[in-house]
Each structure stands twice: as structure tokens, then as C-alpha cells.
Amino acid sequence: MTSPAGRTPVLTVSGLDVRIAAQPVVSGVDLELAPGSVTALVGRSGSGKSLTARALAGLLPAGAAASGSARLAGDPPVELLGLPERRMRRLRGSALGYVFQESRASLNPTVPVGRHLRETVRAHGVPRRNRRSTVLEALRRAGLDEPERICGAYPFELSGGQVQRAALALGWVLGPRLLVADEVTSALDPVTQAGVLDVLRADALAAGRAVLLITHDLAVAYRWADRVAVLAEPGGQPGARRIVESGPAARLLRAPADPFTAELVRASGLAPAAGAVPAAARARRGGDPRGAGTRPLAGERG
Ligand SMILES: Nc1ncnc2c1ncn2[C@@H]1O[C@H](COP(=O)(O)OP(=O)(O)OP(=O)(O)O)[C@@H](O)[C@H]1O
């Protein structure tokens, strides 16, 4: 099978249902994540984005259950749903990286950043002689210019942006084919957010990684994702959320087919006046402060 981008998907999710205490939260979720691409899962707060992502990584909270299929490509492919925890633990990090919403909380405050990464590479069998270079390289790719200093720092000694970058490094230090990034920049100021999402996207393209970017912010999805899937209650009726619409980010913005997507577009401030280029996109084309003014936005391809 090939993904919408024409490449064999890294992850194929079909008919995913997630329930909490037997109540459906999301239902019938279908997703295909292509290598070297970013797919944003967008929806309102509480729509089930995180639970969908957690279901893929076997990280659902007690009382929650998932059914359906989530196949991770490989030789052989692996069905993630229902995978025994022992096997899932081996995959986490090596084949599937997960970066949490609250990275500062997910890093042990009494453990220096470098040890978090070293422990991960050691636990997954990276030979001792390669551990240091693997860790430093992962931090460098996350845009941390002084990786040695960051290694020795405790999480509370770093800024929010540095913590998120360190968390990305932890997520990809073992080179997973799939990386789930759950609201990784929602607590950051816009400039720091842009820096973190730039490295996330650049890494996905360079490493051929499939990234699932969980965000409530359509503007973020438009700027950094290739494709967007919108999670909402169909027809605005209460009940389990579904993917009401998915496709290239630019198409969703230009011609949203679902009323909820249209509402998101309006609320994001990106709504194009008939035929006009969105102001934000115009500004970026005119000269992105990051020097990306001539590069098409992620959402403008496809
Ligand atoms: N551990 C839990 N126990 C009970 N209900 C939960 C639990 N975690 C999430 N929920 C409920 O499941 C629904 C979906 O939650 P989820 O965290 O997936 O939403 P979300 O779209 O990621 O929201 P946000 O953008 O605010 O993080 C919400 O109604 C939430 O209250």
C-alpha cells in the first residue's frame, strides 16, 4: 500500500477506536503517515488527540482501551494495538519515539539531561564506545549548540525551549521511523516554538522519519505539516470524535469541506479572502526571519 504522498507509509492506522470506561472517545480513525513527512492531528481541546496518539504507543491511561489496527511498517510489519507491553517497550524509542506535552515533567528533575539519553541508548544495546557520540549528535540535531553543556545540565537549569529540544533529542536518539510529538510547543513563545518545530520538520525530512504532530493550533499545522487530519464530532453532534477531514494542509485551508474545519480556519486567522494568499503566508514569503522566505511552507506543497 502507498500513502497519499506515494510512498509506503511508515504507519497505517485503520478503524482506531479509543474508549474510556467503555465510553467512546474517538472512533474509526484512519491515518497514513508517509516517511519524511509531518502529519498534524488537529482538534479542539479534549477532542481525543492525545489519547489517539497514546493508543499508538501503548501508553493509554488505566481504564482506557483501543481497538482497530495500527500497523508499523517493517520486516515484518508490527501491529501496535494489543502488542504485549514487553514488545512495545522494545519498540518505544527504537522504532517509535514519543515526545510528551509536558517535557519538563517527563524528565526526572534529579537526573542530568545527558544521563536520560545515555540510559536510553544503553538500554537499547548501543555499544558503549558509540553512546557519547550518539547522544551528542541527537542533541545537536535538536538545535542545541552546546550539547556537552546541555548533557551536564539538570532539566530545571534549562529554558522551556531547551527542554523541548532535549526531549526531541530523547525521542529520536535511537533513530525511530515514527515520532509522535504531542503538543510539544504549546507552552513556548512563538519564536521559540518556531525554532523547535523547524528542527522537528528538518529532522523528519533528513531522516525520512514520519512525524505525527498533535496540535490544537491549525496555524502550526499549516506552517509545519504536510498533511492535516481534523478530529471532531461529526456534524457537531455530541459523541465519539472522528477524522472529519484530512488532506494537504494548503487544501484544507483553501477549501475546507467540513464545517468544523471551516470554523478552525476562521478561528486560526489564516482564512484567505477569496483568491488571496493568507497574510501570514505572505509575510513569510516576503522574508522569513529564519531565512526560509524562499522555501514553500509545508502546507503549500501537495
Ligand atoms: N486518564 C483519563 N481518565 C479519564 N478521562 C480522560 C483521561 N485522559 C483523557 N480523558 C478524557 O478523554 C477526552 C480526550 O482527552 P485528550 O487528552 O485525548 O484530548 P486532547 O484533544 O489531547 O486535549 P488537549 O488538546 O487539551 O490536550 C477528554 O474528554 C478527556 O477528559
Automatic annotation (TrEMBL):
Q: Which Pfam families match?
A: ABC_tran
Biased composition annotated in UniProt, kind: Low complexity: 272-281
Q: Where in the cell is it found?
A: Cell membrane
Q: State the Gene Ontology terms under molecular function.
A: ATP binding; ATP hydrolysis activity
The record describes its membrane topology as:
Peripheral membrane protein
Segments carrying the region annotation (Disordered) are 272-302
Q: Name one GO cellular component term.
A: plasma membrane
Family, similarity comment: Belongs to the ABC transporter superfamily.
Q: What is this protein called?
A: ABC-type dipeptide/oligopeptide/nickel transport system ATPase component
Q: Native species of this protein?
A: Haloactinospora alba
Lineage from the top down?
Answer: Bacteria, Bacillati, Actinomycetota, Actinomycetes, Streptosporangiales
